[in-house]
Amino acid sequence: MIALLIxxxxxxxxxxxxxxxxxxxxxxxxxxxxxxxGAIYMLGAYLGYTVSLVGGxxxxxIVVPILLALLGIAFEYLALRPLQGRSHIxxxxxxxxxxxxxxxxxxxxxxxxxxxxxxxxxLSGSVTxxxxxxxVYRIFLIIMGLGSxxxxxxxxxxxxxxxxxxxxxxxxxxxxxxxxxxDRLSLLVTSLSTAFAGVAGVLAGPYLSIDPxxxxxxxxxxxxxxxxxxxxxxxGAIVAALLFGFMQVAGSxxxxxxxxxxPYILLMIVLLVAPRGIGRGRVLN
Amino acid sequence: xxxxxxxxxxxxxxPLGAIGGSSLRVPLTLVAVAIVFVVGAVAPTRFAGDFALxxxxxxxxxxxxxxxxxxxxxxxxxxxxGAASIYGGSGLLFAIAMNDWNLTxxxxxxxxxxxxxVYATVLGALIVRTxxxxxxxxxxxxxxxxxxxxxxxxxxxxxxxxDGLVVSFKGTVFGMEAADFASPARxxxxxxxAAWLSGLALWAVGRSRLGAILRAVRENEERMRFSGFDTYLxxxxxxxxxxxxAAVAGLLHVLNAGFVxxxxxxxxxxxxxxVAALMGGIAGSVGPLLGGVIFSFAxxxxxxxxxxxxxxxxAIVVFIVVFPRGVVGGLSxxxxxxxxxxxxxxx
Lengths: 285, 347
Prior knowledge:
The structure holds 2 protein chains of 2 kinds. By secondary structure, chain A is mostly helical.
């Protein structure tokens, strides 16, 4: 029972980690919260649906992140850079508007109905681990989630570009004085963040339903995670995503009546106890 | 030398002249405003059709929401994305108070209003101490929380779930019957007065000591704290104040429509009011109200083709990137927003 609970929450948290760490990465570099991240995730899911129909799930898992990385590059060049001089609130509002536009374009092409993607043959069905039968696809999700976590940690911890990202996140002006090109880093980070959103979108297909409301649901969840994790802290975001996933899964098991409210209750409690979140994020004021 | 003396002398004279002029100008302005008020209250009910009046009413309702969003943005530098939960929530509570708690309309109105004010105060107490960006995220989350709560299966008997609630009241509210509120012409007068009152109230607050403190906190919270000012309470008061305006709008909406739907709690209401505020310009009270009316007529034009949400998104981007001062505004620039941006690096 407990093992099942933890496994389920890890599966959910895997998706959330990919999305929330992408948000935290952009925030770290640009001080911008991308309110359009939910729409990018939704685009990933719908593109994943289309590509899966044509060439199968595995192709989608490769093609969609590449397409969305290109979108991220466009986002960086067309939105983030021209608006560099504007306040963070203004840029955040622009991303909100862009997210609404993107969401509406997706709905225009795909209509308002929910879609579903079948998991590939090898990932369907379930396996028995320690006398517990568990769906293979969720195990795959957990591996992907933890794997991307590990890759992210390796990149941030052991490469020079990761070091630069950490430096800029910690103190943008000093990092710039030391000769770090924040613009080039930001291009990398933005495309990485949207590519991760694409991976999450494709992975969400067989796990959750693909519907026109998924962007708002996901961005709200991610914002809660980012606030709980301490704005801008990637480690905090990962811990918060795990906590969030666990609370939501546990909520739907033990408190089915108010399961939808559990994340918000968690948020309110964290705000009461630690208004700046649990991580050591940079604080705006 | 002599040149400088003349300038100084004329400068000394100029204010005197201005005072002489304003002693006449103030009553004149007052008269003009009074004429606009009376004509605006009466003329549309005579000359405009029911349909246009309905759009006007919806526009002013949205305008009041826009007013609350704009006030907080302009005075406190905080962007609220949760106006819908207050707007829809107050209407829903009013319906519940009458249907389930068997209260008279007037008492139900007061109860709904009080509950919303308490909710706004508690929420505000939690979120106004965060930074502006987190505030924006949190208001969005809180709004979604309320719209999820309304859809809960356990509360379905109260809230009506996805079906919404019909609000039919017997008796009178402020001396008006249900039919009066439903009549577009009579409701226009109510709306017109409510919009003016809320506009004037927020304008007066903006000019008061509280407004000055809010703007100072917006510019530099740390410095205000060091100067011995409480930076928390003024922002909380402002947050509660704008939510009172939004709650009044929500109650008026329900009285007029006789129905409250879960859509009125949805995120699109919040984004619409943001767009209306940006369209009208966030400085002052006239802009947001006018922005609401413009939005309402524009929505009628484009809504039938299902383009409202798309245009809302485009409007947010265009008004922030290209016309940060809005259509009507331009009175005060968004320069503070830019300052807000530069501040972090400076400190």
